[in-house]
Amino acid sequence: MSAWLRNIMALGCICTVSGAAVAAVFIVTEPIIRERQREAIRAMAEAALPGAEFQTEGQGEIDRLVGRGKDGEPVGVVYVVSVRGYGGTIRVVVGLNRDGVIQSVQIAEQHETPGLGSRIANAGFTKQFDGKKGMDLVTGAFRPDAITGATISSKAVETAVRDAINRLTNESFFTMGDDDL
Q1: What digits encode the pLDDT tens for the residues 1-27?
Q2: Are 41 and 24 in contact (CB under 8 A)?
Q3: Using CA atoms, how far apart are residues 73 and 76, in angstroms rounded to an integer?
Q4: What is the rounded CA–CA span in Å between residue 169 and residue 181?
Q5: Euclidean distance between CA atoms 67 and 54, whole angstroms
């Protein structure tokens, strides 16, 4: 057997073993990563609606958590909304109370430009939503300040919050009064 054929076979074996190792690591770590993401979302939900109790259903991705008071009645809802930003998908966690007031906006995942678009995750940007009536954002009565040089990322977060508000208005367990609409 010639030397070049032996080298090709050795390289093929190395590639096969390496590929199998990467696949095995993915298979082993994926459930762990998914569970840690779920725990992070739950922690963000608890921060958004302090004192509320949350029950997670299923094992898939969380897209909504209903916060219930001690009496079991809903006190608010936390949505996880995925939107397209400049650098990829942005996952935004939006907490709303039963009156449609924004309690918290947090960034669960983002791949924006470091030092520019990634500033959407800073409290200085996300805190401007806190305490605002959700419908004020929808109607334009409240316009959040965008981050200079990161307009696409800023608008993506605004879109995510608006989407969460629209989802809340369609939920049957909350009734928003006419003055909220």
Answers
A1: 788 999 999 999 999 999 999 999 999
A2: no
A3: 9
A4: 9
A5: 5
Q: Which two three-digit tokens encode residue 65?
A: 């958590």
Q: Angle 121-84-82 (CA atoms, 0-180°, nearest 5)?
A: 70
33-78 per-position pLDDT tens digit: 988 988 999 999 999 998 899 877 656 678 889 999 999 888 999 9
| Strands 53-54 and 74-84, sheet pairing | unpaired
Beta bridge partners of 81: 92
C-beta atoms surrounding 146 within 10 Å: 16
Q: Tell the residue number behind the tokens 């609409």, with chain if given.
A: 181
Quick one: tokens of 30? Answer: 């994926």
pTM exceeds 0.85: no
Residue 133 in tokens: 């009536």
Beta bridge partners of 94: 79, 105
User: Helix, strand, coil shares of the chain as percentages rounded to 5?
Assistant: 50, 20, 30
* The pair of three-digit structure tokens given for residue 116, joined into one six-digit string: 């520019």
**Do 122 and 112 contact (CB within 8 A), yes or no?**
no
Domain boundaries, the chain: 46-180
